[in-house]
Write a structure and sequence with these properties.
Keywords: ATP-binding, Nucleotide-binding. It contains eleven helices and 19 strands. It is of the alpha+beta class and about 375 residues long. It has two domains: about 5-240, 3-Layer(aba) Sandwich (Rossmann fold); about 250-370, OB fold (Dihydrolipoamide Acetyltransferase, E2P) (Beta Barrel). The strands form four sheets. It has a six-stranded mixed β-sheet, with helices on both faces. Strands 2-1-4-5-6 form a five-stranded antiparallel β-sheet, with helices on one face. A five-stranded antiparallel β-sheet has the order 14-18-15-16-17. Helix 4 packs across helix 5 (about 145-155).
Amino acid sequence: MPKINLSGVEKNYGGNAANAVADLDLEIGDGEFMCLLGPSGCGKTTTLRMIAGLEHLSAGEITVGPRVVDSIAQGVFVPPEKRQMGLVFQSYALWPHLTIERNIDFGLRLRNMPPPEREARVASVMKTLGIEKYRERYPSQLSGGQQQRVALARMLAVNPEVLLLDEPLSNLDAALRLEMRAELKRLHQEFKTTIVFVTHDQWEAMTLATTIAVMSDGRLQQVGTPNDIYDRPANRFVARFVGNPPINIVELGQKNSMLSASAGRFLSAYGAELAGASAIALRPEAIRIARQGDDVPAGVLAGEVQVTGILPTGGSWIIELTCGAEKLFLITHQPPDAEVGEAITYWAKPKALHVFDAAGNRLDAADRLLRPERKLNS
């Protein structure tokens, strides 16, 4: 499978509008499952459509393997049907008057594949996706999850070099989404197809992708493995967007803020190297609590708070902690040893802290000081 490279790619729809995509450099590796993740309007679907050839670039270049498929400078544009890519839309776009078998072999017929080979290919893909028994049915006779499988089968049947998926699971209920995530993961492992998957759902990205590209306002914020994105967010946007419940952010230097004061005192022990710190952040699962009289480990960030809410979620509990006008949220998988209204101490180990500068970017000096046991390459 080919490598896809986007270099200096921009998209502007004219007028005085801001770029839908701006100065995008992105490499999608051979056989990679890349998720383009971000909120609505961040440019992820526009990026996918430019890769597919459904949108013309305003600037930059896209290559697939050694072949340039779109370049403003070179005046090159390869039309969608010649890019050897399969595209699955949010709406399944199945032909309502054709049976499931005819929907799946539609692309093969357009390519004039000999009937014996075509039938064998369709049978193989239908078996892989578990939809052989629906061969003679019509799309209206299938559930949403079954229709999604048919849409995937239609694309896989033509054996595309690249599979592009535009929020294909958003129309499914929670149980079917979970089932189809597992199906997509298995298909990627089996077919080794390069997949580019657009989603606003962080859990889809975290569970499916080998690599995630986080976007905001048309710009790339961070590229990395799911663990990289979660454990070392490049900036405050990524830190806040990825994680549920959202990460807790404590601004430094805030007057009349006990949380800010305790965080400032903690960081001051590290001297001038952290002088550029503007905020710290804590994942909810990294926070621990201690009741009055309990021991708190030495060398940790700690402060006094009050329990103002305990929210059971089934397999875990979200605890709301309040200090003045500020709140922290922690999550625990053990029944909480605290009561609403109780004054307690929260604490977190230094290696759990994420520190950001005034521009909102991750402060690498903090990683070196607070996470010395980790080998940091950036």
